[in-house]
């Protein structure tokens, strides 16, 4: 791949000038710098003072003992483990570190002296409650590019490597839970749901299997999904994060990136093994995080009502002999973040003419530059990890999600919209705008006149 040497060298001088290893030839300013002292820059505070007083740059190919990754290989042994820990840097075979955005908190814990950076996880009794796969999709070219299908079972499939001293961490964890939601209790009390003691207890607890998944990106295939070259993807990821991961541009041999973003959580109602059986009715919702509505009940959107409706549908599906799945992605505010989202709310409600559906997307675009950054291109990976071939009932109106899932080769049967009575009054603007933009609805699509009507509350109402 091509490397923009000008932009790399501009990030290096304060460090490189202190290093005796920098070559006189300035055309290759970074590739041989492995370790440089910058002790005057770091404050000597807490236990961090006991750590080595130099920074390890990783712009240097060929760590001793780093295992190769053959992404998409049929077996775990052929694929090789993802080693993103910093305890033994020579073993690292990826860019970035584990835990997504929480990698920064881990760094803070080390900086504060609360965490020994050499700590190795004791994985006793942490193995998955349910085994997922392996499924044929795991090794079909280009099917799974943004998570590690072997991420839940590293203790089994990489036991030899673990015994040899490789610090391999799970990127997926699977456990059991009871989830208790007021909407489900209300459905039970009103008779819409019936307790069976198997999927739903008499006190309204839904019995689920849940999985947490961290992002693991195979860069060559991620680039393909977004229609750009791998070199461009690497350069833009590097530049637009302020140069956070220099290896994106200096280490083209490292093809796997653990991005510092939120992951996904799965809630499975019924037997997880049934997800891969196209004969078993699957009810599924893919839900993108909306803290304001999901957790705090804000009524400007339909997120929580749609989520709890999907959970109700999943419970009923499981009780019919099927299986239910809610895949929850950390993509707050269309992946624009909550600050942008709240700015947009103000812009919508203060605009001349009030909060109208016809200006709904325009107001987001004015603030963010785009309508949406969720880009559903990577979303279907999780379905392929679960072995899913058919979704009988997709609880979503999003045409983007529908297109991404069906475009990835998964058959979709019925589409289930949110019932009108669950749409909060202030969320009518969003719902009308989305239906006019192509979201699925079995009813009438609002016309231009309808979209001009101010339906959202004012800011002080
Ligand atoms: Zn929302």
From TrEMBL:
Pfam families: GTP_CH_N, GTP_cyclohydro2. InterPro entries: GTP_CH_N, GTP_cyclohydro_II, RibA, RibA-like_sf. GO terms for molecular function: GTP cyclohydrolase II activity. Residues 281-416 form the GTP cyclohydrolase II domain. Keywords: GTP-binding, Hydrolase, Nucleotide-binding. Its EC number is 3.5.4.25. Residues 1-26 are annotated as: Disordered. CDD domains: GTP_cyclohydro2. Residues 54-240 form the GTP cyclohydrolase N-terminal domain. The keyword Repeat does not apply. It is an enzyme of class 3 (hydrolase). Signal peptide: none annotated. Gene3D superfamilies: GTP cyclohydrolase II. Residues 1-21 have a biased composition (Polar residues). NCBIfam families: PRK07198.1. This is GTP cyclohydrolase II.
């Amino acid at each position: 791949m091509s490397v923009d040497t000008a932009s790399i060298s501009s990030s290096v001088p304060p460090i490189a000038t202190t290093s005796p290893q920098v070559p006189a030839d300035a055309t290759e300013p970074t590739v041989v710098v492995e370790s440089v002292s910058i002790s005057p820059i770091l404050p000597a505070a807490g236990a961090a003072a006991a750590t080595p007083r130099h920074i390890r740059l990783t712009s240097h190919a060929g760590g001793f003992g780093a295992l190769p990754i053959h992404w998409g290989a049929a077996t775990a042994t052929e694929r090789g483990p993802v080693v993103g820990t910093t305890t033994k840097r020579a073993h690292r075979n990826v860019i970035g570190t584990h835990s997504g955005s929480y990698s920064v908190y881990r760094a803070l814990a080390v900086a504060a002296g609360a965490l020994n950076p050499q700590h190795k996880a004791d994985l006793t009794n942490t193995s998955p409650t349910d085994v997922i796969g392996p499924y044929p999709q795991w090794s079909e070219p280009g099917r799974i590019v943004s998570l590690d299908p072997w991420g839940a079972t590293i203790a089994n499939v990489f036991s030899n490597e673990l015994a040899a001293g490789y610090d391999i961490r799970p990127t997926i964890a699977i456990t059991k839970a009871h989830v208790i939601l007021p909407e489900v209790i209300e459905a039970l009390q009103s008779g819409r749901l019936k307790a069976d003691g198997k999927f739903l207890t008499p006190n309204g607890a839904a019995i689920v299997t849940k999985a947490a998944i961290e992002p693991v990106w195979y860069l060559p295939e991620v680039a393909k999904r977004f229609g750009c070259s791998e070199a461009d993807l690497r350069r833009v990821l590097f530049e637009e994060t302020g140069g956070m991961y220099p290896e994106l541009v200096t280490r083209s041999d490292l093809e796997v990136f653990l991005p510092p973003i939120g992951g996904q959580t799965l809630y499975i109602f019924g037997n997880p093994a049934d997800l891969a059986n196209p004969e078993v009715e699957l009810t599924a919702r893919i839900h993108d995080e909306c803290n304001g509505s999901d957790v705090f009940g804000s009524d400007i959107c339909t997120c929580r009502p749609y989520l709890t409706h999907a959970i109700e549908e999943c419970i009923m599906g499981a009780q019919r002999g099927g299986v239910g799945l809610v895949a929850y992605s950390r993509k707050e505010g269309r992946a624009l973040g909550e600050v942008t989202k709240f700015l947009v709310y103000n812009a919508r409600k203060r605009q001349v003419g009030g909060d109208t559906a016809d200006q709904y997307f325009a107001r987001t675009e004015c603030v963010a530059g785009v309508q949406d950054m969720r880009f559903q291109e990577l979303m279907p990976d999780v379905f392929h990890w679960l072995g899913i071939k058919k979704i009988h009932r997709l609880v979503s109106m999003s045409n983007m999600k529908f297109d991404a899932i069906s475009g990835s080769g998964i058959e979709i049967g019925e589409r289930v919209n949110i019932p009108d009575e669950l749409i909060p009054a202030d969320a009518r603007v969003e719902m009308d705008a989305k239906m006019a933009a192509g979201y699925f609805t079995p009813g009438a699509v609002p016309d231009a006149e309808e979209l001009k009507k101010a339906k959202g509350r004012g800011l002080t109402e």
